[in-house]
Specification:
Elements lengths: L1 E4 L6 H13 L5 E3 L10 H11 L2 E2 L3 H7 L9 H13 L2 H9 L3 E4 L4 E4 L15 H8 L6 E4 L6 E5 L5 E4 L2 E3 L5 E5 L13 E6 L3 E7 L3 H11 L3 H9 L2
Helix pairs in contact: 3-4, 3-5, 7-8
This protein binds zinc ion.
The site of zinc ion has 7 residues, from loops.
Amino acid sequence: MYAVLSDVHSNLEALKSVLQDLKNRHICDIYFIGDAVGYGPEPDECIKLLQTECNIILAGNHDWGVCGLTDIGYFNEYARAAIEWTKGVISIENLDALRSFPALVENKAENITLAHSTPFEPEKWHYLLKSADAVLNFQCFDTKLCFIGHTHRPVIIERHPSGELITNKDNAGIRGDSRYIINAGSIGQPRDGDPRASYAVIDDEKVEIIRVPYNIEATQKKMALAGLPLFLIERIAQGM
Ligand code: ZN
Protein backbone atom coordinates (compact mmCIF):
# COMPACT_ATOMS: atom_id res chain seq x y z
CA MET A 1 0.00 0.00 0.00
CA TYR A 2 1.32 3.45 -0.88
CA ALA A 3 0.14 7.02 -1.41
CA VAL A 4 0.72 9.53 -4.19
CA LEU A 5 0.67 13.24 -3.34
CA SER A 6 0.84 16.18 -5.75
CA ASP A 7 0.71 19.98 -5.94
CA VAL A 8 1.29 21.03 -2.33
CA HIS A 9 2.09 24.58 -3.50
CA SER A 10 3.60 25.79 -0.20
CA ASN A 11 0.38 25.06 1.70
CA LEU A 12 1.82 23.62 4.93
CA GLU A 13 -1.56 23.44 6.72
CA ALA A 14 -2.95 21.20 3.97
CA LEU A 15 0.22 19.06 3.80
CA LYS A 16 0.26 18.50 7.57
CA SER A 17 -3.41 17.41 7.57
CA VAL A 18 -2.74 14.92 4.77
CA LEU A 19 0.35 13.50 6.52
CA GLN A 20 -1.72 13.03 9.69
CA ASP A 21 -4.39 11.22 7.64
CA LEU A 22 -1.67 8.93 6.19
CA LYS A 23 -0.38 8.23 9.69
CA ASN A 24 -3.90 7.26 10.81
CA ARG A 25 -4.07 4.83 7.87
CA HIS A 26 -0.58 3.43 8.67
CA ILE A 27 0.69 4.30 5.19
CA CYS A 28 4.39 5.13 5.10
CA ASP A 29 5.36 4.72 1.42
CA ILE A 30 4.70 8.16 -0.01
CA TYR A 31 5.54 9.45 -3.50
CA PHE A 32 5.35 13.18 -4.19
CA ILE A 33 4.91 14.09 -7.85
CA GLY A 34 5.71 17.77 -8.01
CA ASP A 35 4.89 21.42 -7.30
CA ALA A 36 6.10 21.60 -3.72
CA VAL A 37 6.11 25.41 -4.06
CA GLY A 38 4.31 28.29 -5.80
CA TYR A 39 1.03 30.04 -4.85
CA GLY A 40 1.29 29.46 -1.07
CA PRO A 41 3.10 31.05 1.90
CA GLU A 42 5.47 28.36 3.30
CA PRO A 43 7.84 27.00 0.63
CA ASP A 44 10.83 26.10 2.84
CA GLU A 45 8.68 24.34 5.45
CA CYS A 46 6.88 22.27 2.78
CA ILE A 47 10.10 21.18 1.01
CA LYS A 48 11.64 20.15 4.34
CA LEU A 49 8.59 18.14 5.40
CA LEU A 50 8.29 16.44 1.99
CA GLN A 51 11.97 15.46 2.18
CA THR A 52 11.39 13.93 5.62
CA GLU A 53 8.25 12.01 4.70
CA CYS A 54 8.48 10.99 1.01
CA ASN A 55 10.40 8.11 -0.63
CA ILE A 56 10.42 9.84 -4.04
CA ILE A 57 10.11 13.56 -4.86
CA LEU A 58 9.47 14.92 -8.36
CA ALA A 59 9.56 18.49 -9.66
CA GLY A 60 6.61 20.41 -11.08
CA ASN A 61 6.53 23.45 -13.36
CA HIS A 62 6.39 25.88 -10.38
CA ASP A 63 9.38 24.17 -8.71
CA TRP A 64 11.41 24.54 -11.89
CA GLY A 65 10.10 28.09 -12.40
CA VAL A 66 11.42 29.10 -8.96
CA CYS A 67 14.87 27.52 -9.47
CA GLY A 68 15.26 28.83 -13.04
CA LEU A 69 14.90 25.60 -15.04
CA THR A 70 11.55 26.68 -16.58
CA ASP A 71 11.12 30.20 -18.04
CA ILE A 72 8.65 32.13 -15.83
CA GLY A 73 7.33 34.06 -18.85
CA TYR A 74 5.31 30.89 -19.43
CA PHE A 75 3.14 31.42 -16.28
CA ASN A 76 0.03 33.59 -15.85
CA GLU A 77 0.38 36.82 -13.82
CA TYR A 78 -0.77 35.37 -10.46
CA ALA A 79 1.42 32.29 -10.73
CA ARG A 80 4.34 34.49 -11.79
CA ALA A 81 3.82 36.88 -8.85
CA ALA A 82 3.84 33.93 -6.42
CA ILE A 83 6.97 32.50 -8.06
CA GLU A 84 8.75 35.87 -7.73
CA TRP A 85 7.68 36.05 -4.07
CA THR A 86 8.95 32.47 -3.49
CA LYS A 87 12.32 33.30 -5.08
CA GLY A 88 12.69 36.14 -2.58
CA VAL A 89 12.17 34.00 0.54
CA ILE A 90 13.36 30.46 -0.27
CA SER A 91 16.69 29.19 1.13
CA ILE A 92 19.67 28.52 -1.17
CA GLU A 93 19.67 24.93 0.05
CA ASN A 94 16.05 24.42 -1.03
CA LEU A 95 16.67 26.08 -4.40
CA ASP A 96 19.36 23.44 -5.00
CA ALA A 97 16.92 20.74 -3.86
CA LEU A 98 14.27 21.94 -6.36
CA ARG A 99 16.88 21.86 -9.12
CA SER A 100 17.69 18.23 -8.29
CA PHE A 101 14.09 16.92 -8.51
CA PRO A 102 13.26 15.14 -11.83
CA ALA A 103 10.07 15.61 -13.90
CA LEU A 104 9.49 11.85 -14.34
CA VAL A 105 10.48 8.66 -12.49
CA GLU A 106 9.76 5.06 -13.43
CA ASN A 107 9.58 2.61 -10.53
CA LYS A 108 9.83 -0.89 -12.03
CA ALA A 109 9.49 -2.64 -8.64
CA GLU A 110 6.03 -1.11 -8.10
CA ASN A 111 5.23 -1.18 -11.86
CA ILE A 112 4.43 2.54 -11.81
CA THR A 113 5.43 5.68 -13.69
CA LEU A 114 5.33 9.02 -11.88
CA ALA A 115 5.19 12.34 -13.76
CA HIS A 116 4.07 15.80 -12.69
CA SER A 117 2.43 16.74 -16.01
CA THR A 118 2.33 13.85 -18.51
CA PRO A 119 4.57 10.92 -19.51
CA PHE A 120 4.59 12.50 -23.02
CA GLU A 121 7.34 15.18 -22.97
CA PRO A 122 7.25 15.47 -19.14
CA GLU A 123 9.52 18.53 -19.05
CA LYS A 124 7.20 20.52 -21.34
CA TRP A 125 4.39 20.54 -18.77
CA HIS A 126 1.47 19.53 -21.00
CA TYR A 127 -2.00 19.16 -19.46
CA LEU A 128 -3.91 15.89 -19.78
CA LEU A 129 -7.50 17.12 -20.11
CA LYS A 130 -9.18 15.35 -23.05
CA SER A 131 -9.54 11.70 -23.96
CA ALA A 132 -7.28 12.28 -27.00
CA ASP A 133 -4.56 13.33 -24.52
CA ALA A 134 -5.15 10.11 -22.57
CA VAL A 135 -4.92 7.97 -25.74
CA LEU A 136 -1.56 9.58 -26.62
CA ASN A 137 -0.19 9.28 -23.08
CA PHE A 138 -1.08 5.59 -22.66
CA GLN A 139 1.47 5.01 -25.48
CA CYS A 140 4.18 6.89 -23.57
CA PHE A 141 4.75 4.60 -20.56
CA ASP A 142 5.23 0.84 -20.11
CA THR A 143 4.11 0.28 -16.53
CA LYS A 144 0.63 -0.77 -15.40
CA LEU A 145 -0.07 2.49 -13.55
CA CYS A 146 0.96 6.06 -14.28
CA PHE A 147 0.41 8.86 -11.77
CA ILE A 148 0.15 12.52 -12.71
CA GLY A 149 -0.89 15.84 -11.14
CA HIS A 150 -0.63 19.38 -12.63
CA THR A 151 -4.33 20.02 -13.43
CA HIS A 152 -5.30 19.98 -9.71
CA ARG A 153 -8.32 17.84 -10.62
CA PRO A 154 -8.36 14.19 -9.47
CA VAL A 155 -9.40 11.54 -11.98
CA ILE A 156 -8.80 7.83 -12.62
CA ILE A 157 -8.67 6.76 -16.27
CA GLU A 158 -8.76 3.03 -16.97
CA ARG A 159 -7.70 1.74 -20.39
CA HIS A 160 -9.24 -1.62 -21.18
CA PRO A 161 -7.20 -3.89 -23.54
CA SER A 162 -9.87 -3.20 -26.19
CA GLY A 163 -8.78 0.45 -26.10
CA GLU A 164 -11.94 1.62 -24.35
CA LEU A 165 -11.36 4.36 -21.74
CA ILE A 166 -13.37 4.37 -18.51
CA THR A 167 -13.20 7.42 -16.23
CA ASN A 168 -13.86 7.47 -12.49
CA LYS A 169 -13.79 10.38 -10.06
CA ASP A 170 -13.07 8.81 -6.69
CA ASN A 171 -12.15 5.11 -6.86
CA ALA A 172 -11.56 2.16 -9.19
CA GLY A 173 -10.68 -1.52 -8.96
CA ILE A 174 -7.29 -2.48 -10.44
CA ARG A 175 -8.00 -5.22 -12.97
CA GLY A 176 -5.38 -7.61 -14.33
CA ASP A 177 -5.76 -6.68 -17.98
CA SER A 178 -6.24 -2.91 -17.75
CA ARG A 179 -3.77 -0.02 -17.49
CA TYR A 180 -4.38 3.23 -15.62
CA ILE A 181 -3.55 6.94 -15.60
CA ILE A 182 -4.37 8.41 -12.20
CA ASN A 183 -4.42 12.11 -11.41
CA ALA A 184 -3.99 12.44 -7.63
CA GLY A 185 -5.46 15.97 -7.55
CA SER A 186 -3.88 18.71 -5.46
CA ILE A 187 -3.02 18.95 -1.76
CA GLY A 188 -2.69 22.71 -1.55
CA GLN A 189 -4.92 24.18 -4.27
CA PRO A 190 -7.69 21.82 -5.52
CA ARG A 191 -9.61 23.04 -8.59
CA ASP A 192 -12.46 20.56 -8.90
CA GLY A 193 -14.91 22.56 -6.77
CA ASP A 194 -13.99 20.73 -3.54
CA PRO A 195 -11.52 22.77 -1.44
CA ARG A 196 -10.37 19.78 0.66
CA ALA A 197 -6.87 18.42 0.00
CA SER A 198 -6.77 15.53 -2.49
CA TYR A 199 -4.39 12.57 -2.77
CA ALA A 200 -4.41 8.93 -3.97
CA VAL A 201 -4.04 5.65 -2.03
CA ILE A 202 -3.22 2.42 -3.88
CA ASP A 203 -3.18 -1.24 -2.84
CA ASP A 204 -3.11 -4.43 -4.95
CA GLU A 205 -6.81 -4.28 -5.69
CA LYS A 206 -7.88 -0.67 -5.91
CA VAL A 207 -7.03 2.99 -6.17
CA GLU A 208 -8.90 5.56 -4.16
CA ILE A 209 -8.93 9.37 -4.15
CA ILE A 210 -8.97 10.62 -0.54
CA ARG A 211 -10.20 14.09 0.48
CA VAL A 212 -8.93 15.68 3.70
CA PRO A 213 -10.27 18.88 5.29
CA TYR A 214 -7.68 21.31 6.63
CA ASN A 215 -7.50 24.78 8.21
CA ILE A 216 -8.02 26.88 5.06
CA GLU A 217 -8.37 30.15 7.05
CA ALA A 218 -4.94 29.62 8.65
CA THR A 219 -3.32 29.32 5.20
CA GLN A 220 -5.27 32.36 3.95
CA LYS A 221 -4.02 34.45 6.91
CA LYS A 222 -0.41 33.48 6.19
CA MET A 223 -0.89 34.31 2.49
CA ALA A 224 -2.30 37.75 3.36
CA LEU A 225 0.63 38.44 5.73
CA ALA A 226 3.03 37.45 2.94
CA GLY A 227 1.30 39.87 0.56
CA LEU A 228 0.37 37.18 -1.98
CA PRO A 229 -2.35 38.06 -4.57
CA LEU A 230 -5.94 38.22 -3.24
CA PHE A 231 -7.14 36.05 -6.14
CA LEU A 232 -4.89 33.21 -4.92
CA ILE A 233 -6.04 33.69 -1.30
CA GLU A 234 -9.72 33.48 -2.25
CA ARG A 235 -9.45 30.55 -4.65
CA ILE A 236 -8.25 27.99 -2.08
CA ALA A 237 -11.54 28.39 -0.16
CA GLN A 238 -13.54 27.84 -3.35
CA GLY A 239 -11.52 24.90 -4.61
CA MET A 240 -11.50 26.44 -8.07
ZN1 ZN B 1 0.35 22.74 -9.64
